[in-house]
Amino acid sequence: LQGKANARITFSWLIESGLDSGEYLAFDVSTDGGTTWLEQARLRGNVDPEKVWANVSVELNGISSLKLRLRGKISSSSEDANVDMVKVMAW
């Protein structure tokens, strides 16, 4: 963050129709160097819209460090999830 205390993370993501119930793609943020993580957003198979790009925007205030991660539970190599246009703006 180079001395800044606020950040906005934006990105687009999509899950394909092959994801089943219980499968997901999640976006997590850590503001303590990776010791703890807080889930900010999740796309769930057979629950959330599939094959449709969705925009995500997360704003964080009063932070001194920032780590981002994407994690998922997908049971087959033929099932896909996509993330694009990741931007982090700090002020």
List the defining traits of the structure above:
single chain; 91 residues; 3-stranded antiparallel β-sheet; 6 strands
In short:
The chain is mainly beta and 91 residues long.
Number of strands: 6
* Rg calculated over all Cα atoms: 14 Å
Query: Which whole number gives the mean pLDDT?
Result: 96
Strand percent estimate: over 45%
Please, what is the oligomeric state? Answer: single chain
Sheet with most strands: strand arrangement: 4-1-6
Characterize the structure shown:
The chain contains no helices and 6 strands. It is mainly beta and 91 residues long. Strands 4-1-6 form a 3-stranded antiparallel β-sheet, with no helix packed on it. The model has no long low-confidence stretch (mean pLDDT 96).
